Amino acid sequence: MTAAVAMAALVSACASAPPQRQPNLDATLWIQTAAEYDAAARSVYIAAANDLAGLLADSAESAVLEQEGNYSALPPAVILDVDETVLDNSPYQARLLIGGESYDSQSWAAWVNEAAAAAVPGAVEFTQAAVRLGITVFYVTNRRASQEEATRRNLIEAGLPLPGDPDVVLTLDERPDWLSSKSSRRQFVASTHRVLMLVGDDLNDFVDVDGLSVEQRDGVEERFVSYWGERWRMLPNPTYGSWERALFDSDLGLTPSERTNRKAEHLEPGGEW
Q1: Is residue 228 helix, strand or coil?
Q2: How many folded domains does the chain comprise?
Q3: Taking the model in full, what pTM does it have?
């Protein structure tokens, strides 16, 4: 099947399906085509870059909950997630849509090994601004350790700073205690650096929320309201994430249609409709 034929099949299927049967189409198109997405991402990064100097001067504060001890004299760092924070994987999402497929580890690994993701708008400028101020940029990602070499190639190709020393790409399972929770890796960075800022696209990039309900996640977000817009910066990602898993109680045994139905139950039409 050619790409043109596959695209025609996708368009036909979406045209005849109800809105809840079009998972990820609008979200992926928004990232790939909407000037609004570029503007949103750039706005986050421009504001973050403008605040770096002030955060650098305020040695009494840290962005990570795991920071302990007397850290005021430690060298400064920022921690960024990788996927949908500094690298844009929307082409992978587009391939899944065109092929009528769902995420799986093999197709994802193939995409990662291409090292072809472009930088998220504003990410290069922000990280370069941090480096100019003497701030070390760490990338804490749940890509696997076996994918680190390809990830490094992609980061460099996209124009993101990547020093040879120290190792600033901290991957899942690179060490025995580096699990899907990023807390141990944030703690690892905080043991040698004062972390000025966290940047991510998922609540788990800031504080562990896996397994929490929608309501519980809302409570976590509100609990740390003083961090948002200052030491914590969130990028928009409507395509996937822990927010989506919360809608179907992280039941990974559900079929795609079952997941869609469970997600649709959370729609709020409002009023007396």
Answers
A1: strand
A2: 1
A3: 0.91
